[in-house]
TrEMBL record:
<dbReference type="InterPro" id="IPR036291">
    <property type="entry name" value="NAD(P)-bd_dom_sf"/>
</dbReference>
<dbReference type="Pfam" id="PF14824">
    <property type="entry name" value="Sirohm_synth_M"/>
</dbReference>
<comment type="pathway">
    <text>Porphyrin-containing compound metabolism; siroheme biosynthesis; sirohydrochlorin from precorrin-2: step 1/1.</text>
</comment>
<keyword id="KW-0627">Porphyrin biosynthesis</keyword>
<dbReference type="Pfam" id="PF22440">
    <property type="entry name" value="SirC_C"/>
</dbReference>
<dbReference type="Pfam" id="PF13241">
    <property type="entry name" value="NAD_binding_7"/>
</dbReference>
<protein>
    <recommendedName>
        <fullName>precorrin-2 dehydrogenase</fullName>
        <ecNumber>1.3.1.76</ecNumber>
    </recommendedName>
</protein>
<feature type="domain" description="Siroheme synthase central">
    <location>
        <begin position="118"/>
        <end position="142"/>
    </location>
</feature>
<dbReference type="InterPro" id="IPR006367">
    <property type="entry name" value="Sirohaem_synthase_N"/>
</dbReference>
<dbReference type="GO" id="GO:0004325">
    <property type="term" value="F:ferrochelatase activity"/>
</dbReference>
<keyword id="KW-0520">NAD</keyword>
<keyword id="KW-0560">Oxidoreductase</keyword>
<dbReference type="GO" id="GO:0019354">
    <property type="term" value="P:siroheme biosynthetic process"/>
</dbReference>
<dbReference type="InterPro" id="IPR028161">
    <property type="entry name" value="Met8-like"/>
</dbReference>
<dbReference type="InterPro" id="IPR028281">
    <property type="entry name" value="Sirohaem_synthase_central"/>
</dbReference>
<dbReference type="InterPro" id="IPR042518">
    <property type="entry name" value="SirC_C"/>
</dbReference>
<dbReference type="GO" id="GO:0043115">
    <property type="term" value="F:precorrin-2 dehydrogenase activity"/>
</dbReference>
Amino acid sequence: MTLTPLMIDLGGKKVVIVGGGRVAERRVQNLLESGALLTVISPEIEEKIHSLWEKGLLNWRQKYFEAEDLDNAFLIIVATNNSVVNQSVVQATPPNSLLSVASDANQGNVQFPAHFKQGKLSVSISTNGASPLLSAKIKKHLHTIYDENYGDYVDFLYESRQLIKHSALAKKEQKLLLKDLLREDFLNKDKQRKKLVCLKGDILK
Ligand SMILES: C[C@@]1(CC(=O)O)c2cc3[nH]c(cc4nc(cc5[nH]c(cc(n2)[C@H]1CCC(=O)O)[C@@](C)(CC(=O)O)[C@@H]5CCC(=O)O)C(CC(=O)O)=C4CCC(=O)O)c(CCC(=O)O)c3CC(=O)O
Ligand SMILES: NC(=O)C1=CN([C@@H]2O[C@H](COP(=O)(O)OP(=O)(O)OC[C@H]3O[C@@H](n4cnc5c(N)ncnc54)[C@H](O)[C@@H]3O)[C@@H](O)[C@H]2O)C=CC1
């Protein structure tokens, strides 16, 4: 199976998570900010999922899985500790739904990579299911390099890029300016502020 990395907008989409244990909790955390309509199907749920349900941030149907639970689901996540149940969710999945199977990734068509964010910067690591622990180790390492300074830095890059792109400068000159923004010293917030002042001045000229 060859997997294709993809950034996906789940806003307003129905996402059904079957099972309410530790893995389901990790997926709920992954998906909370996505704007997806989350429904957890499970007779019991972890405390954190319970408190999110109490806050109205997800739906919880306190029951055992039935095929109708998947109606209109865009993404289905199978995460029970019962292999017979997991298999029946796989069988009941409509052919065009996205499916993630926590107990056997190859039975699904999407996988969750190890992932962290610093503002708009999003770093994902996958071993195509070979070693989740290696992905977690690499994530930890990259997190120390791409630390909390990168949130502001990527915002600075965004603002600068908009100014450069909307300027009258020649394309070649724009590219040189964009490349220059990647200098390590621009991680410094003071340098960012000064550079933005310069760019605004140059572009208004
Ligand atoms: C396909 C994938 C995702 C998907 O479900 O879509 C998947 C699948 C499976 N994981 C399994 C086991 C474990 N997974 C973890 C942990 C993590 N697993 C994560 C990702 C992924 N795991 C995706 C592939 C990523 C890649 O390509 O590298 C991490 C990185 C991110 C996250 O989950 O958010 C998170 C670390 C979070 C962190 O610490 O940062 C641990 C350790 C632990 O729990 O502490 C164990 C036990 C040890 C072991 O088995 O190695 C099993 C066997 C289940 C069984 O035995 O029944 C399967 C199924 C199979 O192998 O088919
Ligand atoms: N993909 C991954 O990263 C990992 C996957 N796993 C796999 O994921 C599975 C789940 O692991 P955990 O979340 O740790 O298990 P868990 O034991 O914490 O949770 C299982 C959940 O399934 C629910 N459940 C049981 N029968 C059900 C039914 N008929 N209908 C609906 N819900 C039902 C239970 O109420 C419980 O909430 C494991 O069996 C394992 O195969 C385990 C570790 C990591």
